[in-house]
Amino acid sequence: MHIQSCAIPGPLVIEPRVFGDARGFFMESWNAAVFKEAGLDLTFVQDNHSHSQKGVLRGLHFQNPGPQGKLLRVVRGAVFDVAVDLRRSSPHFGQWVGVELSAENKRLFWVPEGFAHGFLTLEDDTDFLYKCTAPYAPEHEQSLAWDDPDVGIEWPLDGVQPLLSQKDSVGLALTQIRSYA
Ligand SMILES: Cc1cn([C@H]2C[C@H](O)[C@@H](COP(=O)(O)OP(=O)(O)O[C@H]3O[C@@H](C)C(=O)[C@@H](O)[C@H]3O)O2)c(=O)[nH]c1=O
Predict the structure, then answer these.
(1) Regarding the domain delimited by 2-176, which CATH topology (the fold level of the hierarchy) does it fall under?
(2) 59 lines ligand 1 (CB under 6 A)
(3) % helix / strand / coil in the chain, to the nearest 5?
(4) Which of 44, 50, 164 to mutate to test the pocket of ligand 1 (most atoms within 8 A of CB)?
């Protein structure tokens, strides 16, 4: 397993060891002891799976209180995945990092508590899996606007409008949200 840091301290891109053979491949997508050894001592309470067609944008979501750390991966298709730093004390508040996750590259992306998270699907029939460190708490969930100019995420949209949920089409501006960590 190889761990790569990002431009903002906190999020990590994890390249798992993939064992290929004539049957296909095998990889460990989560191993508590190995991750702890690597400095990520995590306890997960919920696993999620979403399925989307190309051009769907989910996010940018965060819970306050009850923030969730998320360990993310794609098992079919591909996404452009984004984390936005909402940690009050961070010198990087409001900044974002983006990483492509795909069934092909098998990357894991760790988004710690204190970040808003979202992704754009780059292929039809994308299956997105993630583990969360805290339970879903809809009463505490908020959406940061995916297109907030103060955040300025460069989504690979090629001029096409993304498909959004009703909730995400009326996300809050960075200036409206209360940072939570
Ligand atoms: C997130 C979530 C949703 N739901 C339900 C609520 C709703 O009826 C339906 C769809 O929910 P949403 O529209 O919020 O799903 P979605 O937009 O896919 O929400 C997800 O987006 C990405 C970007 C994240 O980071 C996740 O943490 C999560 O917020 O599923 C749960 O029961 N448990 C959950 O943990």
Answers:
(1) Jelly Rolls (2.60.120)
(2) yes
(3) 10, 45, 50
(4) 50
Q: Which class for 129: exposed (0-12), middle (13-18), buried (19 or more C-beta within 10 A)?
A: middle
Protein residue with least CA distance to atom 33, ligand 1: 136
Name the active-site residue from 51, 92, 117, 130.
130
Is 134 in contact with 114 (CB distance < 8 Å)?
no
Q: Is the pTM of this model over 0.95?
A: yes
125 contacts 51 by C-beta, under 8 angstroms:
yes
ipTM for the complex shown = 0.99
Annotated domain spans of the chain:
2-176
Q: What pLDDT, in 10s, does the model give residues 120-175?
A: 999 999 999 999 999 999 999 999 999 999 999 999 999 999 999 999 999 999 99
